[in-house]
């Protein structure tokens, strides 16, 4: 997976977190592709979970702070991702993990960034009391 400009939500910190998650997808894809041991794939997925949880917590805090109307829906989406990640991690234990399963998660994530994440950031920028964008460099 590679970062593409269309993934940008317009807030540097969130884009950086998204880039970090994409990098982890790349590492996991390579691990599955080169048939690394199941425990290595398992731990790489665990790292993805940690990063995703941290990132989701940041997003949800921003949504709460700004009274985002689609908060519950967005939280459900994040839960779906973590549930699928759980299932995928279980398959590593039975050595049945395939490119298809990780591809599903990668595609899901790309779509989420381009639609739901962009939508909530737009809302926060339009309605927020906090300016998330950086002032131009002097
Ligand atoms: Fe996100
Ligand atoms: Fe999100």
- The total count of helices amounts to 4
Q: Could you give the count of β-strands? A: 0
Share of helix among residues?
A: over 70%
- Content-based structural category: mainly alpha
Uncertain segments are: none
Radius of gyration: 16 Å
Which small-molecule species are bound to the chains here?
fe (ii) ion
For the termini, the CA-CA separation is 34 Å
Tell me the domain tally: 1
CATH topology: Four Helix Bundle (Hemerythrin (Met), subunit A)
| The CATH architecture | Up-down Bundle
Beta-strand content: under 5%
Mean pLDDT: 90
Order of helices and strands: HHHH
The CATH fourth-level homologous superfamily? Hemerythrin-like
What can you see in these coordinates?
The chain has 138 residues and is mainly α. It has one domain (11-126): Up-down Bundle (Four Helix Bundle (Hemerythrin (Met), subunit A)), CATH 1.20.120.50. Helices cover 74% and strands 0% of the residues. The longest helix is centred in the C-terminal third of the chain and has 29 residues, at 99-127. Residues 18, 55, 59, 113, 117 line the site of one fe (ii) ion.
